Amino acid sequence: MNRTVNIISKNFKKYNPESIEEYLELGGFEALKKAIEMGPQEIISTLKTSGLKGRGGAAFSTGRKWEYSANVKGDKKFIICNADEGEPATFKDRYLLEYDPFKVIEGMIIAAYTTGSTDGYIYIREEYKYLHNKVRKAIELAEKHGFLGKNILGSGLNFNIKVVSGAGAYVCGESTALIESIEGKSGRPRLKLTRTSKQGLFGLPTLVNNVETLAAVPPILEMGVEEYIKYGTHTSKGTKLISLCGNVNKPGAYEVPFGITLREIIYDIGGGIKDGKQLKFLQLGGASGAIIPAKLIDIKYCYEDLEEHGASVGSGAILVADETNKVTHFLKSVQDFFIHESCGKCTPCREGNRQLTKIINRFVTGNASVEDLKTVEKFANVMKYASFCGLGQTAPTALLTAIKYFPVEFYQQIDRIRKTS
Ligand SMILES: Cc1cc2nc3c(=O)[nH]c(=O)nc-3n(C[C@H](O)[C@H](O)[C@H](O)COP(=O)(O)O)c2cc1C
Ligand code: SF4
Predict the structure, then answer these.
(1) Mean pLDDT over each residue of the chain, to the nearest integer
(2) Which of 61, 96, 259, 402 has the fewest other C-beta atoms within 10 Å?
(3) How many Å lie between the centroid of ligand 2 and the Cα of residue 193?
């Protein structure tokens, strides 16, 4: 049985994204009208009840985040929609912007109304160039129909949105690096002495949310929070857009209720493993996520159960690897990514990634030693606790979980060359 659901993805391929009339026919902007009737306090408490957590990876409570932002005083406040989507194997935000741009815009307007913000930015990664003008067109149409601009729907809210783009660095998805990039600086994370909600873009109050987080708000208000929380588990409420890819028959972006098992996702939704092969492992949440073995596919896809096994939902990416994949070779490609994307600002990440790459190369070529396994753990801990931002802190996750779940693959590569020569 296919257990996909249609809440956030309800409008996918149901209307022409260049026609605001078609969006209105599907009930578009009704949630904004409802939000204005509810008022900021009720919106915040609804979001808290919904259990909605940031879908950009950090999973912070959206209701609490909006509450902080609403409580910050300021004549000029910003909303940033984070559409950098640089996490490998992740492509669900692209679907939202491509198939339902007005829903994202509506979510941003509700965020602006709730927090008293004046200006919005949608930061779309450079590689999604084909989306830039499509989203600009949707913004223009929303302006023409009075959903953006001055005194929106008579609520007193003045709010505008601009599309911006960086030069295509993974670290620019990190909220403070993204802010630096919008300011025209080199995209490197900032020291967070003060919350972004107080001092963000141009030193002014700023709320940064992921595309999916913002797009989840209109349906929650529209259907009512009680209906929304019928989906999911007690701790992971509602639904999630996943990006399913790799050696699976039907890759794609799907919406699933939290609590569905990984088996249901891979076999019922994804149509099973390509060419009748066996599943070997999954990587969850992108390159910075954990690797888990096939024997864990009966666990539930939700924050709490994944955490129990050292994994997380992260960006919502689920990469499927069949029996032909060597764990050490796979890790080499993950590590090459981090070497390329480390911004170089701090030593643990810059040097740690270089050292991990050298060690992984030894495992790939069969020249590793037992000492290498101990060194990996030492470096990984330094990186986890001393790196300046999440990139360096999470870079060794795949490697550490792979060693935990596939120790034999590493031991087989220790001194293999010497033993066989
Ligand atoms: C290296 C790195 C890359 C990130 N990339 C993204 C990204 O592409 N999109 C995103 O929404 N969040 C990304 N994040 C998380 C953001 O810093 C931030 O937590 C998020 O945009 C907040 O929105 P949310 O609360 O709606 O999740 C990244 C974080 C790190 C450390
Ligand atoms: S952890 Fe890596 S990406 Fe983050 S600041 Fe340090 S060097 Fe840059």
Answers:
(1) 96
(2) 61
(3) 17
